[in-house]
């Protein structure tokens, strides 16, 4: 990229913010400035931000009642944001927090917002439950920043793998992959979906019925899981992985996209249990996903992509019931009927694959 005087002046605030943010995060072994602000809490988790910056930290309680930070000692706290080509990272941990509270359909919502750079804001909504917190997140931009990439709609953390010693996730066929993090090969190593290489445990996608990446200590806990509801609608093309990087950095990219996805809303869930029981967590997972659907149906959670996908499913079900080729083959329009029938089936397939726009085009043609 060529850097004109106009480009440099436009990016100078971003560069300054990155330097200030990086300096703040090195103070007091990684503690951001300001007082801690509680965003959400449950029986075994607490989510924190700070009055000074819109960072995110997570704590989990173990079976003995001790609270443990997800972030390693001296590591960077969690942050939303994106990268800019030749201009570093734009972080919520270098932006001032604006915290408000709302009530939606009887559900309390804490809204954490910040301005990342002029005309670009991040907004996260936290809805707390006893064992998990639903987080709705979006990056709003009047104009997409030039050269923006690695879009972190869920935070990047620097995690404590001495406390959270094991990982678990299921691939697209439902096969469980689990192991001890320290047993992975020499750094860099990866665990998750859409990784930047290997060695480690690199998968193509998550099980749509059990879409999670969990970190846990099997003996005495705790367990923290990041869940991605409707992963083939809300997270199509997304990446979720742990990167064991240089100098003991353990970067967990909990949810990101390579590019784009400004002014789009998605959601993830942070789940915790004190005993570190992976099997018990998986048994509770359908209840968690059902709760997301209930809140979306009530209007407490607003996810336009999910609403559009549900609308497509309803339209396709109605069309399929009215387009049986066997019922219309004697009416003289059998070829036209067959084309429409298979167009609906194709729309169902591409919707399942996470392409609602292509599904809509096919359904619009049929109708």
Notes on the structure:
By secondary structure, the protein is of the alpha+beta class. The chain folds into two domains: 5-156 and 222-235 and 251-298; 304-366. Helix content is 27%, strand content 35%. The chain is built from seven helices and 20 strands. It has helices at 5-26, 231-234, 278-298, 304-322, 325-328, 334-352, 356-366, and strands spanning 36-41, 45-50, 57-61, 67-69, 79-84, 88-91, 98-104, 107-117, 120-128, 132-141, 148-158, 166-170, 176-180, 189-193, 200-203, 212-216, 223-227, 239-244, 250-257, 265-273. It has a nine-stranded antiparallel sheet, covered by helices on one side. Strand 16 and strand 17 form a beta hairpin. The longest helix is centred in the N-terminal third of the chain and has 22 residues, at 5-26. The termini are far apart.
What's the β-strand tally?
Answer: 20
Shape: globular
Q: Span between N and C termini?
A: 46 Å
Mean pLDDT: 84
Helix content bin: 25-40%
Radius of gyration: 22 Å
Number of helices: 7
Tell me about the biggest sheet? 9 strands, antiparallel
Summing up helix and strand content along with how strands pair, one would put the structural category as alpha+beta
Question: Which range does the strand content fall in?
Answer: 35-45%
Q: Total domains, how many?
A: 2
The poorly predicted ranges are: 1-29
> SSE order in H/E notation?
HEEEEEEEEEEEEEEEEEHEEEHHHHH
User: What's the arrangement of strands in the largest beta sheet?
Assistant: 7-8-9-10-20-17-16-12-13
């Amino acid at each position: 990229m060529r850097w004109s005087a106009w480009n440099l002046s436009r990016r100078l605030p971003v560069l300054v913010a990155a330097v200030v943010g990086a300096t703040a995060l090195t103070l007091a072994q990684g503690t951001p400035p300001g007082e801690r602000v509680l965003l959400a809490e449950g029986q075994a988790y607490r989510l924190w931000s700070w009055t000074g910056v819109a960072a995110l930290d997570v704590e989990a309680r173990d079976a003995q009642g001790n609270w443990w930070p997800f972030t390693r000692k001296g590591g960077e706290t969690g942050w939303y944001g994106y990268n800019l080509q030749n201009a570093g990272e734009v972080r919520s941990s270098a932006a001032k927090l604006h915290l408000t509270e709302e009530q939606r359909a009887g559900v309390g919502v804490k809204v954490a917002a910040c301005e990342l750079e002029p005309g670009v804001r991040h907004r996260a909504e936290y809805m707390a439950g006893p064992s998990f917190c639903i987080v709705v997140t979006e990056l709003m931009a009047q104009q997409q920043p030039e050269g923006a990439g690695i879009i972190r709609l869920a935070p990047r953390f620097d995690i404590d793998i001495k406390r959270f010693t094991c990982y678990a996730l299921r691939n697209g066929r439902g096969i469980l992959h689990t192991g001890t993090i320290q047993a992975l090969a020499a750094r860099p190593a990866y665990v998750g979906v859409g990784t930047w290489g290997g060695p480690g445990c690199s998968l193509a996608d998550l099980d749509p019925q059990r879409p999670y990446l969990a970190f846990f200590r099997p003996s005495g806990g705790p367990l923290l899981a990041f869940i991605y509801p409707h992963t083939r609608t809300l997270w199509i093309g997304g990446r979720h992985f742990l990167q064991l990087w240089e100098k003991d950095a353990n970067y967990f990219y909990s949810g990101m996209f390579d590019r784009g996805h400004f002014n789009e809303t998605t959601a993830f869930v942070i789940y915790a249990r004190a005993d570190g029981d992976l099997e018990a967590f998986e048994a509770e997972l359908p209840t968690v996903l059902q709760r997301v659907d209930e809140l979306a149906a009530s209007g407490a959670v607003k996810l336009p992509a999910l609403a559009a996908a549900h609308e497509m499913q309803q339209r396709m079900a109605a069309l399929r019931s009215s387009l049986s080729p066997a019922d219309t083959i004697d009416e003289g329009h059998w070829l036209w009927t067959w084309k429409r029938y298979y167009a609906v089936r194709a729309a169902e397939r591409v919707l399942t694959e996470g392409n609602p726009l292509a599904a809509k085009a096919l359904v619009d043609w049929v109708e």
